[in-house]
Design a protein that fits this description.
Length: 231
């Protein structure tokens, strides 16, 4: 039920989206009762994640688009709390005012979302992994139902590994990042697989060429990785 409330809150948070998508694009944060909730919105993908201290709580997200009016259509691709919502498609009216997001959850609780960034940056957008080096050879990964998506705004990131056909969820992690002079550095705020990684900073080499991102360095386990991501 909590995830349904978050979904309703997300839908009702958008405002004048048909003509002002840039107004809501980016990262937003809400804190309540020690729980931090992060909402990431890119031009075609969104996610909502909640965590408390080092403990991951839940995440959900998927695709969205506007038809040019004040309605937004979304499709849920992952939901750790209510798996039966995966594949749900709906179109709802939206609202937005004064540069802030205010949402209502069940019981009438009013939630204020504070903007973290406006979604600008060379890495901002949603990416899918399309290549991974193994034994010195770059192997192609064809995006399909089973995929890894990385969502980045101007300062925050989240990756999620899912299967949209079966509803399986394999893991997620996220936090803050910087990308300067070909160096990508991320700090982990939540990690569903191993919360002992929370607080760690990881540094990678990065190069963006159009819609392709070459990414290499050491993983959170200290293992070498070399990946290619595509928008």
């Amino acid at each position: 039920m909590r995830t349904l409330c978050l979904l309703f809150s997300f839908l009702c948070a958008f405002a004048a989206i048909g003509k002002a998508q840039d107004n809501i694009r980016g990262a937003w944060k809400s804190d309540h009762g020690g729980v931090s909730s992060i909402l990431l919105i890119t031009p075609n993908y969104f996610s909502i994640t909640s965590y408390k201290d080092t403990s991951f709580i839940d995440t959900m997200g998927g695709t969205w688009k506007s038809d040019g009016s004040k309605d937004v259509s979304i499709k849920i691709e992952f939901n750790t709390e209510e798996r039966n919502q995966i594949g749900w498609v709906g179109s709802v009216p939206v609202s937005y005012a004064d540069g802030k997001l205010f949402t209502n959850q069940s019981g009438g609780q009013r939630v204020e979302w504070t903007r973290v960034d406006n979604g600008d940056g060379p890495l901002a957008g949603s990416w899918q992994i399309t290549g991974r080096e193994q034994d010195g050879k770059m192997n192609t990964i064809t995006p399909g139902a089973r995929k890894t998506v990385k969502i980045l705004t101007g300062t925050r990131f989240q990756w999620v590994a899912i299967n949209t056909d079966t509803g399986e969820f394999f893991g997620t992690g996220g936090g803050t990042y910087t990308f300067q002079n070909g160096v990508y550095t991320e700090k982990i705020d939540f990690f569903s697989r191993d919360n002992s990684r929370v607080g760690a900073s990881l540094t990678f080499k990065g190069k963006v060429d159009g819609n392709s991102w070459d990414h290499s360095g050491l993983s959170s386990k200290g293992e070498p990785i070399h990946e290619v991501w595509q928008k």
